[in-house]
Amino acid sequence: MLIAAGVLYWLDWVFGTSFRDPRFLSGWVLFAGMVVLVLYNIRKKLPMLRLGRAAIWMQLHLYVGYFVVLAFILHTTYSLPETLFEWGLWVLFVLVAVSGVIGIFLTTSVPPKLELHTERVLFPRIPAFRAQLAREAEELAIQSIDQSGSLTISNLYADTLHDYFRQPKNIVAHLRNSSRPLNRILGELKKLERYLDDRGKETLSAVRDLVIAKDNLDFHYVNQGVLKLWLFVHVPATYGLLVLIVAHVAVVYAFSSGVP
Amino acid sequence: MTQQVRHVGKPQRWDEPFGSERMRPRDVARILASPVFAGIDPDDFPSDMELADIIANDGRIVRCARGQIIVRRGDYGNSLFVILKGAVRGMANKEDEEKAFRPRRVRKMSWFRSLSQLWRNASVPEARTLGIRKLVPPGGSGGRSGVAVKMMHRDAAASTDADDVDAEAAGTGDGEADDGPLPAGTVVTLIDDIDSVIERFDTFEMSSDDMFGEIAALARSPRTSTVFATEEDTELLELRWQGVRDVRQWSEPFHKHIDDLYRERGLASRLRDSPLFDLVSDDVLRLIVESAHFETHGNFEWTHRYKKEVADDQRADQVIDHEPLIIEQGHYLEGLLLIHSGFARISEKFDHGEKTVGYLAKDDVFGLEEIVATRNGEQDLKARRSLRAIGYVDVIRVPTHVVEEHLLPSLDRNSTAAVPVQPVDPLNDATDGEHDELQQSLLDFLVDRRFINGTQAMAINTDRCVNCDDCVRACAATHDNNPRFVRHGLSHENLMIANACMHCVDPVCLIGCPTGAIHREQESGRVVIDDTICVGCATCANSCPYNNIRMVEIRDTTGAFLTDPEGRQIYRATKCDLCASQISGPACQRACPHDALMRIDIRDTSTLTQWLGPVG
Fold first, then answer.
1. What is the C-alpha to C-alpha distance for residues A38 and B360, in angstroms, rounded to an integer?
2. Is A227 in the B-facing interface, judged by CB distances under 8 Å?
3. For residue B542, is pLDDT > 70?
4. Which of B228, B350, B466, B571 could bond B355 through an S-S bridge, CB–CB 3.0 to 4.6 Å?
């Protein structure tokens, strides 16, 4: 990849010294690079054909992606855009490139984190599991009043746990792999233990298990969500960029003198 | 609130007889008077399991039309047949059989046809174009050198014209069968020109009071020959394996008769298949065959217990306690054990428990090391380790004195380098403590959960998997818009075995398929379902211990669910077929951008551990 970039930079210098506009060369190389990058997506859409393993295409996608960034820097002559149209191109390219780099980071760092955090849960099933945990927690809270007449657990549920079970919580903490919010809730549960009879303690222990299960579920929801989220930037921005690239090529040739 | 309790009788073994109803007493009396059963003393049987009851409940009478195929080579059967009236013929050799009934194989699509799936596939999942697809019965559809066969309802078997029976009709027959206890709608296969088959191909005849199917019934191995009726209204007793087992257990003459048949028909060739016995001369092999014993250990229906164990993590860890001992560590070794089919666990005492050190699969032997060491005066003839049945295992036991007198001298004369005396023992490959620890826990996981059965298990490396579902989408794109697996399953460290068909060494899902729709391809070893003849009975899905077969409701191309005339939904069994018809090969594996999914033979532990990467 570095050798290819070196060759491109040398050719760019040769073009420049021969009084041609080197941006035509870097522009077409950039375009070709973009086509190769898009081919990866086409490969994914054609699993029924013998087009090579997606893992190899992925490696190609990564290396060509790095090369294209260097070609882009060359093509823009190390300067910021001047017109609104160029700004559009520039912003979309940067979005695609940066989201891609973030994607690489996430796809290598998040899966081992998930693996360490109990059993992996299928992402689409997480809301159903969360609702189930919420139901069980509510039942325990109501049951605790019937069993011992104590309002301690039910009050805790109403004040804190109801909201905790209702939706994903502590998103930033889960991204940072921090267990502080969980420890805080478990600490609150621990403090209440001294006020409960044996039955109440049993109920509290069951609530504690549900809190931990919900925390694990949130961890998976947040981290698996992040694994999908970056693609919501990368892919639409790529389509927008492709449209602008076609328009850019048309405009350049429409207003060029015909000599590169 | 008081819960209402409804008392029902405890389910008994014979609540559901083999036939649609318990056999009539006069039929039982007729069977017991036949030469096969006449020599059996009913007093040998316990009072709660009388011979007549076994026949009445575990047997059924099957009446066949001339030309009707009774068993097909390669099918997994679980019953034995006794000819009561008429005659049958079997194909004498594999070559003729392949000429006559071309082995089924899934044809690969052309490049263009593969691509055209993009626009040709219906937009709704599991759509079928019924009436357009041509029915191809098991055994092929004839051809230049083959035999023309046709499929039809059991109720219509007596008639001669069944050209228009299609896969749908096959599953939804109406009316009661006019004879025999087979359920209405049972599909049968008829050979069109039986005289030509007999004339052109090498066949053998069996007539009244002969018995066949004992090998498959006892050893749960594929049928070794295709057998068809040669006379109109041929009558057979079909005895399911439970009945065969019990009669064999309580009646010494029957036990001997079955074992003699097995020796005569299958044991010699079976031993030849094993690398160990391949080295001995024909004379020695004959001596070994005469003295060998066929044994079964474990529960044939182990799948139900397995499902419960897997559902309960703690029980899964204690699964070894429930596995029947074949031989215990330190006990006298009565003979060399050759695994005929199934798996056995090798364990040794470790503190207060048992530590798994390996397992045996088909053709592996146990006890040879001990026998050799004893001959060399290094130890007493005792088992160094214990051997247990994992689920259900068939074993051939060759007495120690026969091994010492005949087998060892033969082996001494030949190079024993190629003889697989060592069991599959992944721990032996360990090079350091850490690796050893990984292998032990991984081995426990694979053996306890019985993933060792898988030849093409879907392994997912959760260290690399990013849940992108590209594998799932690729599978759906190549299979009626519905993925044939669930990207979820049991995990051990960074290994997840997903819920995808593993194409098992011992595919219990094949047992009991009424049409032979689910079968193993002879060339590739893949277990595939012929969708055109699947009748949606769910036998295979219920049998699969790993829950890897799913019943799906099928639709037409507009998305409307298909129902039979009574308004009942029509189902099909679906599972991973390793993209048998696709030119791309397994789409799931090729679609994974992170190399996180692999189809792998689980017994290849070195590749598996290498792919999973180092610990830490």
1. 49
2. yes
3. yes
4. B350
